[in-house]
Design a protein that fits this description.
Helices cover 44% and strands 13% of the residues. By secondary structure, it is α/β, with parallel strands linked by helices. The protein has a five-stranded mixed β-sheet with strand order 1-5-4-2-3, with helices on both faces. Strand 2, helix 3 and strand 3 form a beta-alpha-beta unit. It is globular. The chain starts with a strand and ends with a helix.
Length: 206
């Protein structure tokens, strides 16, 4: 559940729902907040990109979507704003994956997003390894994305999750408000011990 996650910024006060001053501390600078507000007023929508490793955070993502997202959307709708959540762990089609378009689609969706949220555990995410056939698709999807995102050339050995993080935040921290959640490592260690005899399930937490 989300109880195992911690936020690196100050959380909003869910009781009073006052956002003007608090969101500036949570999401970014005052200038960034003004720009975000103007964008929302112009478009009537706010788009959030939700980033996490392909495996290992399924419970947290499901909990967020089922328990919290409906209330957030209702809040936005009460202000005349449509909230759109992009979580490509559910949004990449088999055809797109087979054509190794995963990274291109992820980065393009980040470009269209107003807010970037990262949700991370102990698992780093899948990266290209010449000696592991199962990871060769990462190198191929990076090659396909490279013409549009030439900065990727310097990060060939990084995971898809780190590349999302770099594009969504680290390459230009002033581009959009960002928030990051980290799961307590003790939880991952507990799961690794619990599934020590099940390699498939254990790898979700390593």
């Amino acid at each position: 559940s989300l109880s195992n996650l911690s936020l690196i910024f100050v959380p909003l006060d869910s009781k009073i729902m006052i956002v003007e001053e608090v969101v500036a501390d949570v999401c970014g600078s005052e200038e960034m907040l003004i720009s975000l507000r103007q964008s929302i007023e112009e478009k009537g929508t706010v788009t959030v990109f939700f980033s996490s490793p392909f495996g290992g955070m399924e419970e947290e993502r499901s909990s967020f979507v089922e328990q919290y997202l409906p209330a957030l959307r209702t809040q936005c709708e009460s202000k005349g704003v449509t909230l759109s959540l992009i979580d490509l762990r559910w949004g990449i089609t088999e055809e797109q994956a087979s054509k190794c378009q995963t990274l291109s689609i992820c980065l393009q969706e980040i470009d269209q997003s107003d807010i970037f949220i990262g949700c991370y555990g102990n698992r780093y995410g899948t990266k290209h390894d010449e000696n592991t056939v199962e990871t060769h698709w990462v190198g191929t999807t990076l090659d396909i994305a490279l013409p549009q995102y030439p900065w990727l050339e310097n990060f060939r050995e990084k995971s898809i999750t780190e590349l999302e993080y770099r594009h969504g935040f680290l390459n230009d921290p002033s581009k959009r408000p960002s928030m990051f959640f980290f799961r307590n490592k003790k939880y991952d260690d507990k799961m690794i011990e619990m599934f020590k005899n099940s390699e498939g399930r254990r790898k979700r937490y390593e």
